[in-house]
Amino acid sequence: MNATSNRLRVGKYELGKTLGEGTFAKVKIAKNVETGENVAIKVLDKDKILKHKMVEQIKREISTMKLVKHPYIVQLLEVMASKTRIYIVLEYVNGGELFDKIVHQTRLKEDEARKYFQQLIDAVDYCHSRNVYHRDLKPENLLVDANGNLKISDFGLSALPQQCRADGLLHTTCGTPNYVAPEVINDKGYHGATADLWSCGVILYVLMAGYLPFDESNLMTLYRKIHKAEFTCPSWFSPGARRLIMKILNPNPKTRITAAQMYKNEWFRKGYTPPKFDEEVRINLDDVDAVFSESTVRTKSFAWHVRCVRMLKHEISFVRAGLRRQ
Ligand code: ADE
């Protein structure tokens, strides 16, 4: 990092104001000084990650994010590191959080909620087809871009910041369980895909109702209601929306609606157009490996050193063999 101007620089990025802050990370807006483009940079503290033994998990999650390239998912651009920090450079999304719309408008009209829900399912299903599960879909992770399209942030990075995870499960002391599937709370093992769909169902409900389907100040009462899927739909929900939400917020993950079934659902299909995008993903994991090594340069020169020693040994044995023959 350097500070040639009065702004901090990380590589070619000039850091700006903080967009959000969690337990392990800060997200900052930054400018690519070569292109003038904005990015969002997630800044992680290496010490904290080492202390919490999260190195392998974070490497795995960052690698996973590199596999995911979809128009409705925030794109990971690159990963960098200094001695003390890790910088995850992300596509910048400038429309704010989707749920700010609810704060301002109380709730969304059914057609608008459906559009965001279709985009959410498209992105979630794309990730599931690559064995990537979010496990913590919630409003803070849903952003809106300049074209009014949804962008999910932290897909594949769900093990990072905010959530205080050490065992892959959500800890209720660190976050709200309002969006979490009953089988996840149960802690008896769960399938990532069906659990993510439950969270999508809660999100759809909130978009259309303007409030949560399960909301209790007492945690035990909240869990009981989630386990029994004890909720009611407001009068303004259409019969089609009601039927679909009942199929998603089914406490039994084995009989809960799947994404494939969702695409056949009449309410879901209305006005649906699948996104067009280039599916090709080129992956280079060099930066991910370099992130936790002290210095990339040292790693390279060490490899170079090993090669030189090997060549020298080879040369020496060659000379010795020649001498013996003489
Ligand atoms: N907040 C968190 N991630 C963000 C992103 N990629 N763009 C804008 N704001 C964000």
Description:
- By secondary structure, this protein is of the alpha+beta class.
- It has twelve helices and eight strands.
- The strands form two sheets. Strands 1-2-3-4-6-5 form a six-stranded antiparallel beta sheet.
- It is globular.
- Mean pLDDT is 82; it is low at 159-175, 295-309, 312-320 and 322-326.
- The structure holds adenine (ADE).
- Adenine is lined by residues 19-20, 27, 40, 74, 90-93, 143, 153.
Q: What portion of residues belong to β-strands?
A: 5-15%
Output mean pLDDT: 82
List how many beta strands DSSP finds: 8
What about the largest sheet?
A: 6 strands, antiparallel
Which CATH first-tier class of the largest domain would you pick?
Answer: Mainly Alpha
SSE-based structural type: alpha+beta
The CATH superfamily of the largest domain bears the name: Transferase(Phosphotransferase) domain 1
Report the CATH architecture of the largest domain: Orthogonal Bundle
Alpha plus pi helix count: 12
Tell me the radius of gyration. 24 Å
Q: What fold name goes in the CATH topology slot of the largest domain?
A: Transferase(Phosphotransferase), domain 1
Helical content band: 40-55%
Distance between the termini: 59 Å
GO molecular function, one term: ATP binding
Protein name: Protein kinase domain-containing protein
Keywords: ATP-binding, Kinase, Nucleotide-binding, Serine/threonine-protein kinase, Transferase
Domain Protein kinase: 13-268
